[in-house]
Amino acid sequence: MPSVTIYSRQSCPYCHMAKDLLRKKGVAFDEVDIEREPQRRAEMIDRAGGRTTVPQIFIDGRHVGGCDDLYALDRASGLDPLLAA
Fold first, then answer.
1. Whole-angstrom distance, CA of residue 71 vs CA of residue 25
2. CA distance 40 to 76
3. What tens digit of pLDDT does each residue of 51-69 get?
4. Torsion angle defined by CA atoms of residues 2, 72, 48 and 33, in that order, rounded to the nearest 10 degrees
């Protein structure tokens, strides 16, 4: 199973939606809460090519994007192959 990292905030409904989809797919993920670890925000922005919103999701180091991007990838049947790799 690939490594999945999600940068998030507790108060973010999109973060909760993205995590719910990953859980529904049976995927374990590492969560980085940028409110609890504010020093990691710069890391997220750098990895995400300048994107500053949460969530930012990475599968095996590949930037997938945010919640809308994750759901769009799933609707296009592109998420399962990434998670099965």
1. 12
2. 31
3. 999 999 999 999 999 999 9
4. -70
